[in-house]
Design brief:
Blueprint (H helix, E strand, L loop, with lengths): L4 E4 L1 H7 L5 E5 L4 H5 L6 E2 L9 H7 L5 E5 L6 H16 L7 E5 L2 H7 L18
Parallel strand pairs: 1-5, 2-3, 2-4, 4-5
The structure holds zinc ion (ZN).
Amino acid sequence: MARSISYITGSQLISLRSRPNIAIIDVRDDERSYDGHIAGSLHYASDTFSDKISNLIQEVKGKDTLVFHCALSQVRGPTCARKFVNHLQEIKDDAGIKNVLVLERGFNGWEASGRPICRCNSVPCKSENA
Ligand SMILES: [Zn+2]
């Protein structure tokens, strides 16, 4: 069961995301709608995150690695990742999740490194992981 949270870099995420068993969880709030997002990422805003953890577990069924991020991944990203891990421990069901990761430097770092941004308005994002 995932108990600890590790950080990964943008380049590590690029190589990981070609795997089908990974989900990227964007926990930014309104910024997602005007700043764009990482292609294929799910949106679970930090302000309602706790209420929607069960929905998130349903949505990531079959995935074993979750990567959380917010704008900088300093507060909201790690906090939500921690809430998620605590929740799995509380319900005593790991839901098949083996790794809970946080994207270092968040969306802003991702964008600043020139990595691709999706600007679709679909919920969920329909874009394939590049
Ligand atoms: Zn999109």
